[in-house]
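Standup notes, structure subgroup. Blocker cleared on the molybdenum atom input:
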Amino acid sequence: DPYADDPIRHPALKVNSQRPFNAEPPPELLTEAYITPNPIFFTRNHLPVPNLDPDTYRLHIVGPPGRRPLSLSLDDLHKFPKHEITVTLQCAGNRRSEMSQVKEVRGLEWRTGAISTARWAGARLCDVLAKAGHRLRETEAHVCFEGLDSDPTGTAYGASIPLARAMDPEAEVLLAYEMNGQPLPRDHGFPVRVVVPGVVGARHVKWLGKVSVEPEESYSHWQRRDYKGFSPSVDWDTVDFDSSPSIQELPVQSAITEPKDGEMVEAGEVTVKGYAWSGGGRAVIRVDVSLDGGLTWQVAELDREEQRPRKAWAWRLWQLQAPVPPGKKELNIVCKAVDDSYNVQPDTVAPIWNLRGVLSNAWHRVHVRVAS
Ligand code: MTE
Ligand code: MO
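Run returned:
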C-alpha cells in the first residue's frame, strides 16, 4: 500500500477521499479564525505523501544553457532573504458539489472548504532564479515545477507558471518552508513547496524537487489535461484540452459558512458569516447578502485585515447581523462578492457548468428554517 506511510490527520476534517487523501474543514471551523490552523487546512493530494529527509533534501534549479544547475539544501534555501506573506490557497474544484447538482462532472465532491489561508515564509522564487543565472528576457517562457510525489510509473506531480510572474518581485512567488511559523506539515509539502499568490492551488507544487525554465508550459497531465475551463456545451467526447488556457488567476469567490444549509435559526436576529476572495491580488471590496433569495440585499461587514493594492493575496472574512423579518418561516440566504475590478459572481451555476467542475463561483445559497 503506497499510502501506508501517509501522515495522521485531524479528525475534524471532512474526508472526500482517503487514498489519495483529500479533505476539507467543516464550514464553521473554516471561518473561526482569519488564519487557518495547520491541522485543519484543506488538503488536496493526487498521490501518496512522500517521506522526505530534510538533511538530504535537495532542490534542483536548472540554469540557463551553459550554466551549471543549482542543487540547494534546506540550509542553502534559508540563506536567501526570508519573505513572509499571508496567502489564501483555493483549489479549482472548490464548490464542485454544487456544479454536479446541475449535471454530472468528473472530480472530487468539494463543498465550500477547498480553500484556506496561512502565513507562508520562504525564499522568493525570483531571488533563487536570479542566483541560478536566469533573467527575464524570454517573456513567453514558463517556470516548471516538479514534485517528489509520484505514481507507480514514476510520473511526478508537475505544473508551471509564466516566467514573467516568477521573476516579478511584486508577485511574491515563494519557495516556502514555513506555514504559520512551523515547518511545513507533511501533507502541505514538507520540506518545501511553491506558493503562487493569487493563483489556483494546482500551481502551488508541494514536495518541490525541481525547478526549470522552459519555452513551453509543463507537460504534466495537471497542466495540460486538467485544470482548464470549458463551455457548458463541451462534453468528454468533444473536449479538446489544447483549446483552453490552463487556469492561473482565479475569479472572485465567496461562500456562507454560517448558518449551514438545512439548519434551524432563532427568530429575532440572524448572524450570517462567510469568506470572500479574488485571484490575481484583487481585493474584495464588498459582500452583499440577501435573506430572501436575492430580492433585497444588505452589505456585510468585512474584517479589518490589511489589503495591499494589487497584492491582496488573502481572503476577507465577513459577517452580517440582521433582523429576521417577522413572520418568516424560512430564509433563502445568498451571498455575492465584488472585487476591486468590479468583477462579480454569476447568479447561478448552470451557465458556468463545465465537465471538470472547476471555477464554481456562483452566488452561494443556504436555506434555513426559522424556529417559531
Ligand atoms: N503538489 C504536489 N506535489 N502534488 C499534488 O497532488 N496538489 C495541488 C497542489 N500542489 C498537489 C500539489 C493542488 S490541485 C492543490 S489545490 C494544492 O496543492 C493543495 O494544497 P494543500 O493540500 O496544501 O491545501
Ligand atoms: Mo486543486
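Discussed briefly. The CA atoms of residues 99 and 357 lie 6 Å apart.
Next: hand off to the docking folks.
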